[in-house]
From TrEMBL:
One Gene Ontology term from the biological process aspect of the record: negative regulation of gene expression
GO molecular function: mRNA binding
Keyword match Acyltransferase: no
Residues in RRM domain copies: 9-87, 98-178
UniProt keyword annotations, A-Z: Repeat, RNA-binding
Protein name as annotated: Putative elav G
Record's compositionally biased regions (Polar residues): 196-206
SUPFAM superfamilies linked: RNA-binding domain, RBD
PANTHER family hit by this protein: HETEROGENEOUS NUCLEAR RIBONUCLEOPROTEIN 87F-RELATED
SMART domains attached to this UniProt entry: RRM
Signal peptide: none
Annotated segments matching region Disordered: 187-227
Top-rank taxon: Eukaryota
């Protein structure tokens, strides 16, 4: 089964009324096919609904039918938004996992403040703000690892586009590379002719911010945290 097909099984459901439960979400989507799980995301401390959830089907065709039928569906005083849980901007070769990559952080963003931002979405098992080893200043890149895939999905959707400061660019949140993808990317990189690499650095052609982002992921060493 391909990564894209797997992502199509899981639907992100936004603008749920605050009183909708896991069971009611299940009943709402069950007419479209067999459901593996349904989850309304809640704020850990208060137990209040965050207004969105996830529904995972066993078949992608059922998920597609549910998305078509339930997107823009009126539930109470809300209009639902239903879409695949994997964001369209996510690189197709990056596999969904529990580790999230976050940028651009504020220069003074700490691991504690990053924990405060992400903790409403689930149990954080590790968190890291990347620091330049020579200057000891923040690289404005962070990683947050959750205990479950559902929690990571919820955080990705909930924090993407959030502004840490009105004058600061919105946050980009995506799945971090797995070790398998890292090795594949590095192998492809080594195959490139030397003159092509030189030209890329000299003229800027073929280089983009993603190159530096991925190198940051490669060097990341996460420390466990009992958040």
């Amino acid at each position: 089964m391909s990564g894209n097909q797997t992502d199509r099984l899981n639907l992100f459901v936004k603008y749920l009324p605050n009183d909708v439960t896991d069971e009611e979400l299940y009943e709402l989507f069950s007419p479209f096919g067999e459901i593996v799980s349904s989850k309304v995301m809640i704020e850990n401390k208060s137990g209040d609904s965050l207004g969105y959830g996830f529904v995972r089907f066993t078949k992608s065709d059922d998920a597609d039918r549910a998305m078509t039928a339930m997107n823009n569906y009126r539930l109470g005083n809300k209009i639902l938004m239903v879409k695949p849980s994997n964001p369209p901007r996510q690189a197709p070769e990056v596999i969904r996992n529990t580790n999230l990559y976050v940028k651009p952080l504020l220069p003074n963003t700490t691991e504690q403040s990053l924990t405060t931002l992400f903790s409403p979405y689930g149990k954080i098992v590790a968190i890291k703000v990347m620091v330049d080893r020579q200057t000891n200043s923040s690289r404005q890149i962070g990683f947050v690892r959750f205990s479950t895939q559902e929690e990571a999905d919820a955080a990705l959707h909930g924090v993407s586009g959030h502004k840490l400061d009105p004058s600061h660019p919105p946050l980009t949140v995506r799945y971090a590379e797995t070790e398998e993808i890292k090795q594949r990317r590095m192998a492809e990189k080594e195959k490139k002719p030397l003159n092509h690499q030189f030209n890329a650095y000299k003229t800027g052609q073929g280089m983009n911010d993603e190159v530096f982002d991925q190198d940051g992921e490669q060097g990341m060493e996460m420390q466990g945290q009992g958040a």
